[in-house]
Specification:
mainly alpha; cytoplasm
Length: 81
C-alpha cells in the first residue's frame, strides 16, 4: 500500500473518532490531521524501505570486502614472520 494512502486511511480513522456534533467539519479535520501527520513524519527523518534495502546491500558488500581484506592481512603477516 502506498504510504500516502496509508496516511489518508489513518487520518480518516482518527477523524471518525471525533464526536458527532463536530463531524460537520470532518473534511477539514481530516485535512488538518493529514498535514499534521505528514509534518510529524518528516521531522522523524525516516527513510523509505527501498533506501533502507539499498543501504543494507551496500553494508553487506562492505562487510564482505572487509572480511577478505582481514584474511589477506593475516596471510601477509604469516609470510613476513
Amino acid at each position: 500500500m502506498d504510504p500516502l494512502d496509508q496516511l489518508d486511511t489513518l487520518a480518516k480513522r482518527l477523524s471518525s473518532l471525533i464526536p458527532e456534533p463536530l463531524q460537520a467539519t470532518q473534511q477539514d479535520i481530516e485535512s488538518n490531521l493529514r498535514s499534521g501527520l505528514e509534518s510529524g513524519l518528516r521531522k522523524m527523518n525516516l527513510v523509505t524501505r527501498e533506501e533502507f534495502d539499498v543501504q543494507s546491500a551496500v553494508l553487506l558488500r562492505t562487510r564482505e570486502k572487509l572480511e577478505q581484506l582481514e584474511k589477506r592481512v593475516v596471510e601477509l603477516e604469516a609470510h613476513t614472520k
